[in-house]
C-alpha cells in the first residue's frame, strides 16, 4: 500500500473521531471513502441504526494495510449490556446480534452453548452486521421463544423477576405482572390491618400484634435520640438473632438456616442490580449476573441447601422444651416453613430444567444440586413447553408467602425489629 494511501486512512480516522459539527456530513464524507472498496455494504449501512456514524468510529483497525481479516467489532465497545429487566439473567448467553439483526436466525453454538446469529460460525458466510435494528419486542422474542425450539428457550415469554423476587434472586423493582400486583395488594392490606391494631392500643398490657407482648403501643411522647453505638448494637442484635440465641439454641439454628440465606441472597441481588445499572460493562458484573458462572451457581445452590435444611428442621421439629419457651415469640408453625420448602424445591427443579434445556453449558456444574437435578431430565422432550408452568408455580408460591406474612405468625419478622427498636429507645430514655 502506498504511503499516500496510509496517510489518507489516518486522516480519515482523525476526522471520524472529531466532535461532530454537522455530524452527518462528516459521517457521509468518511463513509464514502470506505464505500469505494466496500460498496456491497452501502445498502445495509444506509438502512441501519449506524448510518450516521463514521465507519472508522467502530472499525478503527481499518487503517491497517490488510484490514480484511480484522476481528469483528464488539457491540459492547459502544453499547452497555441490558440490565436484569431485559436480560432476565438467562440471556447472558445470548449475543447481541442474535436479537438485533434484521432477519437474523438465532442458533445455539454447539461448543459454547451460546445463542448466536447463524452467520457467525458458518464457513464462508458473510455477516450483515450493518443491518442492526431495534428489536420489535414481541417479534424479537418470538425468534427464540416458540414451541419446539431447540435453543433451550421457554416456549412462553416470561415477565422479568419483580420486586417480589428480590429477597431470593437477582431481580428488579418491577411491579407489572399479575402475580406481583395481587400479592403486594394482599400484603399491604394485611400490613394496614396490623398497623391499625397496633395504634388501637393494648389490652391488659398485651399487644394485639402477633408474636409481640409487653409493648404498650407506639408512644407519641418525645424520646431521646439514639446514639450511634446503640443503633449499631440493635442492628447486630437483629442481624445475628442475638436474643433468640440467648433464649434457645435449637430455635436459633433453625431460624439462622432460613434467615441468613435470604439475607445473603438479598445482599447479592441488590449489589448485582446496582452494578448492572452503574457499571454494566464490568467483568464482575457480568459474572454475578450469569447463572452459569461459578460464583453465581455455587452461591445460590449453597444457600438453597441451607434453606431446605432449615425448613425441614422447622417442620419435623418436636414440641419445644418448656425451658425454651419464649413468651414474647409465638411457637413456630409448620405452614409457612412448608411453603418456603416447597418454593425452594420447585426452584431447584426449575434450575435443573434450565440446565437440561440449554444443553448443560460450561460452568453449570458448579450448581451442584441443580446440575444433579438436570440429569433427571436428560433425553426428556417438551421441557421448553412445561418450563413456563413450573416457573409460574414457583412465582405464585413466592407471592403467596409474601401475601400471608401479615396474617400469620411470620409477622414477627416485621414486628420483632420494631419491638427491639422501641425497647432500646425506652431503655435509652430510662438510662438503663
Account of the protein in words:
The chain is mainly alpha-helical and 432 residues long. The protein has 17 helices and two strands. Strands 1-2 form a two-stranded antiparallel sheet. The radius of gyration is 29 Å and the shape is elongated. The N and C termini lie far apart (87 Å).
Number of strands: 2
Describe the main β-sheet briefly.
2 strands, antiparallel
Radius of gyration (CA) equals: 29 Å
What's the overall geometry?
elongated
Mean pLDDT: 79
Strand order of the largest sheet: 1-2
Number of helices: 17
Secondary-structure blueprint of this entry?
Layout: H1 3-17, H2 23-35, H3 42-46, H4 55-58, H5 84-87, H6 96-100, E1 106-108, E2 115-117, H7 138-141, H8 178-199, H9 228-240, H10 242-247, H11 249-278, H12 283-289, H13 294-316, H14 335-357, H15 368-374, H16 383-404, H17 412-430
Antiparallel strand pairs: 1-2
Amino acid at each position: 500500500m502506498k504511503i499516500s494511501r496510509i496517510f489518507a486512512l489516518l486522516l480519515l480516522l482523525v476526522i471520524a473521531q472529531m466532535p461532530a459539527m454537522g455530524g452527518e456530513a462528516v459521517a457521509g464524507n468518511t463513509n464514502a471513502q470506505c464505500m469505494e472498496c466496500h460498496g456491497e455494504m452501502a445498502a445495509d449501512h444506509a438502512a441501519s441504526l449506524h448510518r450516521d456514524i463514521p465507519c472508522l468510529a467502530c472499525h478503527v483497525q481499518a487503517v491497517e494495510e490488510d484490514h480484511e481479516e480484522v476481528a469483528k467489532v464488539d457491540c459492547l465497545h459502544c453499547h452497555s449490556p441490558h440490565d436484569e429487566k431485559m436480560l432476565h439473567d438467562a440471556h447472558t448467553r445470548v449475543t447481541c446480534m442474535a436479537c438485533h439483526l434484521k432477519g437474523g436466525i438465532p442458533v445455539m453454538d454447539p461448543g459454547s452453548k451460546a445463542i448466536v446469529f447463524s452467520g457467525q460460525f458458518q464457513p464462508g458466510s458473510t455477516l450483515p452486521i450493518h443491518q442492526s435494528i431495534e428489536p420489535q419486542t414481541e417479534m424479537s422474542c418470538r425468534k427464540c421463544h416458540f414451541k419446539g425450539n431447540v435453543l433451550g428457550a421457554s416456549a412462553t415469554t416470561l415477565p422479568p423477576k419483580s420486586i417480589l423476587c428480590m429477597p431470593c434472586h437477582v431481580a428488579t423493582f418491577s411491579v407489572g405482572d399479575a402475580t406481583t400486583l395481587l400479592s403486594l395488594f394482599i400484603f399491604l392490606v394485611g400490613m394496614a390491618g396490623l398497623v391499625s391494631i397496633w395504634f388501637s392500643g393494648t389490652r391488659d398490657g398485651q399487644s394485639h400484634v402477633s408474636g409481640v407482648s409487653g409493648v404498650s403501643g407506639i408512644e407519641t411522647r418525645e424520646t431521646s435520640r439514639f446514639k450511634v453505638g446503640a443503633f449499631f448494637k440493635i442492628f447486630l442484635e437483629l442481624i445475628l438473632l442475638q436474643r433468640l440465641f440467648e433464649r434457645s439454641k435449637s430455635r436459633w439454628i433453625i431460624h439462622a438456616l432460613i434467615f441468613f440465606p435470604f439475607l445473603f441472597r438479598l445482599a447479592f441481588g441488590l449489589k448485582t442490580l446496582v452494578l448492572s445499572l452503574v457499571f454494566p460493562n464490568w467483568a464482575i458484573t457480568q459474572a454475578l449476573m450469569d447463572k452459569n458462572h461459578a460464583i453465581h451457581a455455587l452461591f445460590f445452590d449453597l444457600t438453597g441447601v441451607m434453606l431446605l435444611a432449615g425448613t425441614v428442621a422447622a417442620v419435623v421439629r418436636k414440641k419445644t422444651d418448656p425451658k425454651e419457651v419464649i413468651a414474647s415469640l409465638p411457637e413456630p408453625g409448620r405452614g409457612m416453613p412448608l411453603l418456603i420448602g416447597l418454593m425452594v424445591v420447585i426452584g431447584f427443579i426449575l434450575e435443573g430444567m434450565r440446565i437440561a434445556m440449554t444443553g448443560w453449558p460450561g460452568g453449570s456444574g458448579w450448581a451442584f444440586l441443580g446440575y444433579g437435578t438436570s440429569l433427571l431430565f436428560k433425553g426428556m422432550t417438551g421441557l421448553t413447553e412445561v418450563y413456563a408452568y413450573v416457573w409460574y408455580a414457583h412465582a405464585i408460591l413466592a407471592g403467596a408467602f409474601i401475601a400471608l406474612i401479615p396474617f400469620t405468625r411470620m409477622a414477627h419478622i416485621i414486628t420483632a425489629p420494631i419491638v427491639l427498636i422501641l425497647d432500646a429507645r425506652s431503655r435509652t430514655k430510662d438510662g438503663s
